[in-house]
Please model this.
Amino acid sequence: MKRCMWQVVLAMALIAPALGMQASAEDAPASTVAGSVAVVNDYLFRGLSQTNWKPAVQPGIEYDHASGWYVGAWGSNISWLSDASSDAAPISSSVELDFYTGFRGKITGDWSYDVGLYEYYYPGTYPSGFTRPYTTEAYASIGFKGVTLKYSHAFTNLFGFARSKNSGYVDLSYSYEFSPSWTVGAHVGHQKVQNVDGASYSDWRVSVTKAFNHGYSVSLGYYDTNASRSVYTNAYGHFVGRATGILTLSKSF
Model:
């Protein structure tokens, strides 16, 4: 089953350019460069706090080619690595830098696809023998109107868990604009961590977003997980998978 899942990801990556070519050159949008910056009261990734319940600033930039190919970069301050270290074996990493590329487009009608590769990079110094958190995932998603199903497959160890290659994350999300400039969203996901007892978990959220003029928006969400406290409690005694509310202020340009 695990082999089938990543084979599906690779197969979709191979056929995606061909799917994108179904649109005529006349219908193809112009290539664009877009950026954004967001401020959050807590950076959550797959339901887990990356900043020990503290705020984060998150800039990003993306180039979208008319063919459907895109490439981008994104960053945030973090503390989860240093939070888990000790004075005897300190970790200096305080930044997450992400790099990604892929293809997206329409299949037919209201059906869409998105496939690509994503690299999570955490610059810093690490003690000898520490499993580096750098993670490379392939992802594939299919969407219908406001519903999206996505699978991400790790080709490396997953975020510092030793011997965790071939871990996978399944993400089902929904968004609906119920009134002009107002959007409600929901999500449920499951992170499977290979060969690490108790590390797999599920997460979920509900949110509402209000868009304003000039690319500004504000979002409020409720997040929770069933993650194991014994696995996901940091050196400060904080359970990073707790239920929490997240306020996001963002600007796109």
Observations:
- Helices lie at 2-20, 80-83.
- The CA atoms of residues 126 and 170 lie 30 Å apart.
